[in-house]
Amino acid sequence: MSQASSRASLRLRRIAAQALPTAIGIVILHFCLLQLVPGDAVDVLAAEAGSATAETMAQLRASLGLDQSFLAQLGQYLWRLAHFDLGQSSRYHAPVAELILSRLPGTLLLMVVALAIAVVVGVACGVLMSVWAGRWPDQLLSIAAMLLHAMPGFWVALMIVVVFSVHLGWFPSGGNATLGADLQGLAWWRDRALHLTLPALSLSTFFVSIYARLTRAAMLEVNRQDFVRTATAKGLAPLAIQLRHVLRNALIPVTTMMGLHLGNLLGGSVVIETVFGWPGMGSLALEAMLARDYPVLLGVLLLGSFVVIAANALIDLLHAWMDPRIQGE
Amino acid sequence: MPLLRNFLALTGAALLALFTAIALTAGWLYPGDPLDMVAAPLLWPGEDMAFPLGTDPMGRDLAAGLAHGARASLAVGFYAAFVGVAIGTLVGAAGGYFGGWLDEVLTRLTELFQTIPTMLLAIVIIAIASPSTETVALAIGLASWPTIARLVRAQFRALRQADFVTAARSVGYGDLRIIFGEILPNALPPIVVTTSVMVASAILLESALSFLGMSDPDKLSWGTMIGNGRELLRSAWYLSALPGAAISLVVLALNLLGDGLNDHFNPRLRQR
Questions:
Q1: Helix axes B133-144, B118-129, angle to 10 degrees
Q2: What is the ipTM of this complex?
Q3: Which of A152, A166, A298 comes nearest B244 by C-beta?
């Protein structure tokens, strides 16, 4: 028991040692990008006001600390960041951090559901493909995976909308809830789920194809190992061997890749959210981009990266739980 | 299975050659500006055989748009992959060959860029540097080099103690000559395979960016065409469907080629 808990704490420390330098690096990169942005907050304020004299602009710059040296500004920036102050949005007239945090749950929901679909469907397809390796179900699924892998996610989204929303009318084509409908209980949940289905499906397609191919290869690889022959010799049922022993080991490369894909998933979510008008960080980033609202855009980059770091740490823990051989050094 | 594999790889190569040929000859096949109005608006594909793929709401020929779009999409794809491979190879080679603190720093840097969502970083870079073919390609390249860097680093770490490297060192070759003249050629096969995949993902990323309106406004690209067609998705879905199909075909071709090359370089894995 105590050995297990010390292993867990070692694991946590290792994860922190991994995540912290990355987080610091991202903060510094964020600051550098902020410096590269054309114009500054005062230009934006002046443009908003419609008229400003050179004197008032200089005054404003001084009051915002924009006339100080690079290092002093970095210090101020870090100080503000420590208080979770990411600046003020010129477009929404609200603190950037507040804006992004209000959109974070939408993106997280979309990502988690899409990832769940991708893992469940992808792994299931991969298992089926490995069971029928080389025969027609395998070849059919392989072709499907290859096609899905090549299609741009946002295009899949549009085509799904054409079929399931425009022609069949099964699902709504945008938003995250029916506007103006005062729904309660089950009807509320149903409405939300219907709105979530198409965005999550279109975000997951690309990853379904990856996990299917990965699971197939990993299952075939594990199947060749000795312990599988031992299990067979022991008289275990083939299904039990495949699910209990082979799949468990084959899932490890899938979870590894999952960690690497989180950034892609978040990036894909930017486009998918725009297609469906889904209120999340991605659509916020695009609105900010169009309005030249740089603090918001860069804030999304910063917080998006933090989301990836946090999720990676979670996957590390999952990994340790799945394969006890993986330990901290 | 090997026969099928070869067939698929050849199909990929042929498709890619076809699209490259279309991209190169677009100006000759469809002279004039693809953004000009040439026919009645919103002709469906097949409705008027002079415009086999139909026209958009502005009466522009969709076939001409697709041919010219191939030029923009492929150019950005290859250019971006070149940038990504160049940065990734330099970072990975330096870290893997020299090791020590340099490797530590470069690995951290690679991890950093791997963590940042590629799409968001590309959007930010383009927002700062205004969209043009070059900046879009540069942004995609800058955001996507870590894959190559990790791969090259692993290769260099595996090869730097190889006999032929020790031999080269004992003859007195310099570090640069060993890196580029001795190790890199031997590390090339997996880099080539990954490059074909990188071109594919660069094309996908470019299409997403131009779909969102972040591309050179004077050039037609497939992503832009999908974005333009989006408003008429309900009535004229072919406007978005056709350019998307073109993107999928090119990416499929590159992936097939990549798989084929991978099989070719790793015969051990071929029976899978």
A1: 150
A2: 0.84
A3: A152
